[in-house]
Amino acid sequence: MDKNLIIDVGVHTGQDTEFYLKKGFRVIGIEADPQIYKSVKERLNHYIENGQLTLLNIAVSTKDEPVTFYTNSDRSFWGTTSLDRVKNKEITFSTPFVEMTVEGCRFEKILEQFGIPYYLKVDIEGTEILCVQALKQFESKPKFISIESTKTSWNALLNEFAVFKELGYQKFKAINQAEVPNQVCPSPALEGQYIPYQFEYGASGLFGEETPGNWLSESEIIKVYKDIFWSSRILGVNGIISKLPGGKMLLDTLNIKEPWYDTHASL
């Protein structure tokens, strides 16, 4: 495990990547959307030129071959290779996706080429588990991992934790991503160098020992997610209240928005 390496799968606008770079880490950034990749490459070109950042325009896949990628012009962070995720978003939000072909690559191949990172961040809208499962083939593991966790399937969530447990991860946090813009970088820093940084909405935010809250055991974190799932079923965009006459208007009036969560895991 390379203590100075972070792999950012799902770079999007690059704000998390930039945070890791400014903290002094070397970063391998992965972004499937060609337009977003081009924009981030131009903005962070200084780090690419000095060798601190390697940016890859690929999609994590089950095979090393071209794959269908779906991008959303209204919400660029919804880009995904998961057709199930696309269908769900189209039905729920009546928003169209554009289909394109991009280069696909197994995450095992990426780890073989660049090594095991200190921290692995994965946010690729529905296929995060591919990156976690790829670690089974390696003796060394990242000290920390974060993935956007599912809120639609309890069995899928339990499978995520089963894979984490198999890999040796024993401590967990559920981070409300809607609250990331309120995060404050601790000083002195607990990971890398200290920098004052303001996260925008959509960022994954702080990582490792700098994440807010206490580390929980597997049984404790599953209890937390039970509450999250129940809240989603009642107050979520497809929840009980939203399906009642005037329910969506009521939720909008009360400014109740369904949050999403990242699971952070530590060895």
From TrEMBL:
InterPro entries tied to this protein: FkbM_mtfrase, SAM-dependent_MTases_sf
GO MF terms here are:
methyltransferase activity
Q: Which UniProt keywords apply?
A: Methyltransferase, Transferase
Q: Does the keyword Methyltransferase apply?
A: yes
Q: Which GO terms describe its biological process?
A: methylation
- Residues forming the Methyltransferase FkbM domain are 8-170
Specify whether Acetylation is a keyword of the entry.
no
Spell out the NCBIfam families in the cross-references: fkbM_fam
Name of this chain's protein: FkbM family methyltransferase
